[in-house]
């Protein structure tokens, strides 16, 4: 028998296993990427005129918050999936707009609706990757009973979420390229240096990446003619690097400062309006 006063979880989408695989391919779970995503939440907050904005990806058991504004600073980065609002947005590519959570059968018994902070409005915008899977949501919420979004605001937020999804697609692609190149490196090194072990491979990768290695590793790599005595790649080392096209630039992150966010928000709104 179901308790009518209980908050009940959403039905699991039929494609959830494949959807979760797509989420994990982004490489963003359990990684601090706030500097990459803060601009989307700042902009969503400005477009919606609402106090809370957050972005989260949902795997099989939890929602991982990439970034949030207006929520308590000590809120956990991971929230059980079956306690979230955003689980209800996973089976549809259209925004989930709830103007009155207190009278919505899905949300009215949720603790943050029936009790403090007494959320009344929820807008969840699905983050849809290029394969059509909903990875998570960009959300705005409010406790003001009069809060709402007009068609223009909804359109801007859909476009903003599309940009966020595109960034995640790029990151997924970069991770796949990096993994592919690592496999290529393994094959090349194993072919040229059959006796190479995994620790020596990591040492060689570290040198290519511009990282420091200990003296013992320098001696090993030098002995195998992969680096010179000064620690730089040898002709053989450079040839292997060239053979696989390993580019350390793919590992770099793009950081956005608070000043950049403030100066670019208006420009981004104009750009979204032109799309």
Question: Could you explain the architecture of this structure?
Answer:
Helices cover 43% and strands 14% of the residues. It folds into 2 domains: 16-172 and 254-274, GAF domain (Beta-Lactamase); 174-251, no CATH class. With 275 residues, the chain is α+β, with helices and mostly antiparallel strands. The chain is built from 8 helices and 6 strands; from the N terminus they run ααββββαββααααα. The N and C termini lie far apart (50 Å). Strand 5 (121-128) and strand 6 form a beta hairpin. It has helices at residues 16-25, 34-48, 111-114, 151-192, 198-208, 215-223, 235-244, 258-274, and strands spanning 52-58, 62-69, 78-80, 96-98, 121-128, 134-142. It has a 6-stranded antiparallel sheet with strand order 3-2-1-6-5-4. The protein is elongated.
């Amino acid at each position: 028998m179901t308790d009518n006063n209980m908050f009940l979880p959403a039905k699991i989408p039929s494609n959830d296993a494949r959807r979760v695989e797509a989420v994990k391919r982004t490489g963003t779970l359990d990684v601090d990427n706030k500097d990459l995503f803060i601009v989307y939440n700042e902009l969503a907050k400005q477009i919606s005129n609402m106090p809370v904005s957050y972005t989260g990806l949902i795997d099989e058991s939890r929602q991982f918050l990439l970034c949030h504004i207006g929520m308590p600073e000590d809120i956990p980065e991971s929230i059980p999936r079956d306690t979230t609002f955003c689980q209800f947005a996973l089976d549809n590519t259209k925004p989930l707009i709830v103007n009155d959570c207190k009278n919505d059968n899905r949300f009215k018994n949720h603790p943050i609706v029936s009790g403090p902070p007494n959320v009344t409005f929820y807008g969840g915008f699905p983050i849809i990757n290029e394969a059509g899977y909903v990875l998570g949501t960009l959300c705005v919420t409010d406790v003001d009973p009069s809060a709402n979004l007009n068609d223009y605001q909804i359109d801007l937020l859909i476009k903003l979420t599309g940009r966020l999804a595109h960034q995640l697609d790029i990151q997924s692609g970069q991770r796949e390229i990096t993994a592919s190149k690592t496999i290529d490196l393994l094959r090349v090194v194993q072919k040229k240096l059959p006796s190479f072990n995994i620790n020596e491979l990591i040492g060689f990768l570290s040198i290519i990446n511009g990282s420091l290695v200990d003296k013992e590793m320098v001696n090993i790599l030098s002995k195998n003619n992969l680096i010179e005595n000064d620690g730089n790649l040898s002709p053989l080392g450079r040839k292997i690097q060239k053979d696989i096209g390993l580019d350390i630039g793919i590992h770099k992150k793009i950081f956005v400062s608070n000043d950049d966010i403030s100066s670019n928000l208006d420009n981004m709104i104009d750009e979204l309006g032109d799309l």
